[in-house]
Amino acid sequence: MTRGISRALMGTTALCVTWIGASPAMAQDMAEGPAGFLGTITLQESKRDVRTDTATAITEIDETEIKDRQAGTVAELIDSVPGVNLVNGTRAQGSGINIRGFGATGTYGTDQKVLIQVDGVTRGSEELYRIGNQLFTDPALYKQVEVIRGTVGSFEYGSGVVGGAVLLETKDASDFTGGEPGFAFRQMLEFSTNGEGIANSSILAWQPTEKLEFLVNYTNRQLGIQEDGDGNPINPAGGDINDPSYMVKGKLTFGADDAHSLTASYTNTDSTQYNVPYDAFGLGTGFGFVDRETSSETAMLRYGYNPAGNDLVDLSLQFSYANEEIMQTPVPGTPPFLVGLIGADHKYETTTVTLKNRSYFDTGPVAHNLVSGMEYIYRKRLDASSAPGGDDNRWAFFLIDEMAFGGGWTVTPAVRYETSDISGTTAPNNGQFSNEALMGGVSVRYAFGNGISVFGSAAYTEVLPPIDDLDNVARVSTTEKSRTFEIGAAYEGQDLFSSGDTLSLKANIYDTELWDVTSYVSATPMGQQLLDEVHTQGIEVEGSYAMQNGFYTDVNATITEAEQTDAVFVTQDWGLQAGNSLRVTVGKKWGDALDLSWETEMNESVTNTFGYTPGYAVHNLRATVAPKEGVWEGTEFRVGVENLFDQNYRTPLMSPGRRATGRNFKVTIAKAF
């Protein structure tokens, strides 16, 4: 059986409360009187909060943590989320995102079971052989990343979400101007010792008026050949990385009570590598070498309508376009039989139109938070060797209703209906195929009123075939099916061991089954055969504790077991399980000006598709200094030491010949003007 645990800690929000929870006005009145006011108690925060207010397994990484982690890729940023693992480490061109045992594999950049969106724009490649990555973009562009694990919270965003979803939100000009007319500028420089990395990010924000804002961001990252803990080069044939990214974004608010808004954005990330292995997921050079240029761009235009005093209408109509291109040229001397495969250019475009509305209303004693919408998705893929081209037209309708019954009960049913019409562009893969699926789930949560809550959910989804399956009639005509059950409990309290302290705990058990499998194969006595079933199970535990003196600690643990059953009904361990893990962070804050923390990541030994991975423990140190006054006001200094003891290790979903990065010192300096 497969048991994969994925749990989340979320960006904590500082909280100020007064005695007996008085409102600010009441607190002021009490402060003006001679008696009764006992002062303001500030509840401290940890690196991440635990989302105890929902039955969905969700982790939120806020902008502060994005900066503190000094990540070079989005994949590297979110690998700290329980249940999230990277296939082949953190290289921009060679890592993939895997959640709860699904997503990137050692062969493809995606199995279509992990969804990625940027500002509501769906991203990610088809099943590109040996090269596909789900997300080419820079973390400096974002102010928030949400990671949903499992299926139950995904129906608003897409179908086939078995492992989870990654939702990224880009920065806005008002985040830097404070919503006031004027200019703001922020410059960041970052240096890393392992691989002699250099990154710079420049952000210019301008608000001509309170209702109009513009933002421009340019980021460039350069990284050489990194070394493992023993000083050996990691993938020396992989070449240097030079990845420029930029974003332009604007927003206009207009109409009575600012009910109308228009938001437009464009992001682009380019990467060029010369004489690198075609196989970006491993050290193997059996597929030859190529010069590879990767370009990823996203455009979005959104209209919003939220009239004042009308709780039934919070409408958005969004048009989006994503284009991802991989251009490859075999190096001189490539054997002729490889030229067709490794010289193929790949291009896939996704155009989406989404109409969505959120309504708040009551039906008797039940309060509703209803999200409804419809979506048109058009994906076009260029025909290439071993990657059939074609078109995929999809229509989707979804409905999610969060119903609060009072007395602590919340019930959230969700449903999504989606159709798909695929047509090939080139013989012999030029057939036409139609599929449809009705998916849905329900979550139930009960809060006892004393900080304790219990919850459970059940969800069913289907993975509609991608264009890549056009070369196999059986696969392109079959949808993969999945169901997930989850149960858990949570606690949140304050003033438990000392005045102003906070404690949050959450434990979750899940069970996922995938059948009618078309994505994975296994060696059987009859040769390579599709799997019959994949079954994953897991326990997730997360906790967060913070004291008024600034001390904090975060803990999350993942315990997983997983199994696969092949076509001749032989059962064995699931090839993509990452094993049991524990992550602990201990730190101390001195207001908002200084934050020191130590983090350890531990993983038990595991055997999977990538072979045997011994257990390991890796330690990281981080320090953030952000003066709030004087000549250094507005300046942020960050120092990080990753893999402090220079461990030579391999993560569970890393090719046997590749090792993780050795000790790496990082220094970041940022200044806001």
From TrEMBL:
Q: Which InterPro entries match?
A: Beta-barrel_TonB, Beta-barrel_TonB_sf, Plug_dom, Plug_dom_sf, TonB-dep_rcpt-like
> Which is a Gene Ontology cellular component entry for this protein?
cell outer membrane
Q: Which GO terms describe its biological process?
A: siderophore transmembrane transport
Q: Which domain of life is it from?
A: Bacteria
Q: What Gene Ontology molecular-function terms does this entry list? A: siderophore uptake transmembrane transporter activity
The record's section on Gene3D superfamilies has: TonB-dependent receptor, beta-barrel domain, TonB-dependent receptor, plug domain
Q: Which residues form the TonB-dependent receptor-like beta-barrel domain?
A: 267-644
Identify the keywords attached in UniProt to this record, alphabetized.
Cell outer membrane, Membrane, Receptor, Signal, TonB box, Transmembrane, Transmembrane beta strand, Transport
Please list which residues make up the signal peptide.
1-27
Where the protein is mainly located, per its record? membrane
Q: Where in the cell is it found?
A: Cell outer membrane
- Membrane-protein topology: Multi-pass membrane protein
Domain (TonB-dependent receptor plug) ranges: 52-165
Q: Which family does it belong to?
A: Belongs to the TonB-dependent receptor family.
Name-wise, this protein is TonB-dependent heme receptor A
Gene source species: Roseovarius indicus
